[in-house]
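Researcher: Next sequence.
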Amino acid sequence: MSAQLVSAIVANWNGARDLEICLPSLLGQSYRPLEIIVVDNASTDDSAVVARKFDVRWVGLDRNRGLAGALNEGANVAQGEFVLFLNNDMRFHQKFVEALVSQIERDAGIFSADALQHDWEGANQVHLATRLGNRYRANSNCYACVPGLYVYQESSASPTTIPLACAASMLVRKSMFHSLGGFDRRLPVGYEDLELCWRAWVQGWKSIFVPHAVCWHRVGWSARSSEGAGIRFRGTVGGRLLIATKLLPVNYTIRTLLAACAGLLVDVAAMRWQRVRDRAEVLIQYAQSFLQLVRERRAIYRSQRITPREQLERMLRLACEERSPLWASTEPLPATVYGSAASSDIK
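Model: Next structure:
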């Protein structure tokens, strides 16, 4: 049986230097057939020149549509049965794609497969198996996705079910992705993966973490400019409001809105005027889309005859029910995969 085509979609914005490392790493993958597509958010640097040098497909957008918009555009032109969503500031073990595909193919009910991410130097693991909880957990890369609901991470030696995969290293079934309508374009950066995987779970489609699919990531590199930081900040504030209103029980919606308003008052008191403008812009957009989000919420849950509260409880139970591996891992990668950035196989 011939292998299925995988379309790797690299979202890019002024990342010519990153592409110089990312693209050769993808071209050196053991898995074939592999289609590589760079979707560019109206860069002003030499990104197009780099893409042409490596002879990969280039999709240039007329404006910056954010991460969700760029990935959707890539999926729309992708030819593969599977679509692999990636950031540009990454590099990959030679068997990265192979490891993800080998696991997602084991179960037709799997929507997405997620990878293990190291920091750029290889000193720390910065993305592991995600879990969802209702309390903060120290030393687990924990953050509040909305007030009172936390995403945290824990190590897993074998593939395991998770509530969400990371959009920076996420392999999905294209048919399921299109059935869900893709990423929500109102989430320019941040929360787009949580929102998508949550809706997949409502349909009964699983996400899994694959620890032997290994990559290295310059986490936060895209937010190093003031413009990038502003986009990230607005994406976080807006993402929390959208997630809480579209997917979660009403009490989370109220708490998240109150927290956003309180943040606005704090920024006014501290005279952080750019933050004030950013928050106000997000809150205005939220108010304008509120009724639409409520309608979408009803449609999502009525189609499966489940309530937001019941779905949340299911997602929280994953943290307890799925700690045991789904199945035995495939043959482990060489020990050098987990070494420092100086190892010869990751240069």
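Model: Residues 216 and 244 are 31 Å apart (CA to CA). The domain at 6-223 is CATH 3.90.550.10 (Spore Coat Polysaccharide Biosynthesis Protein SpsA; Chain A).
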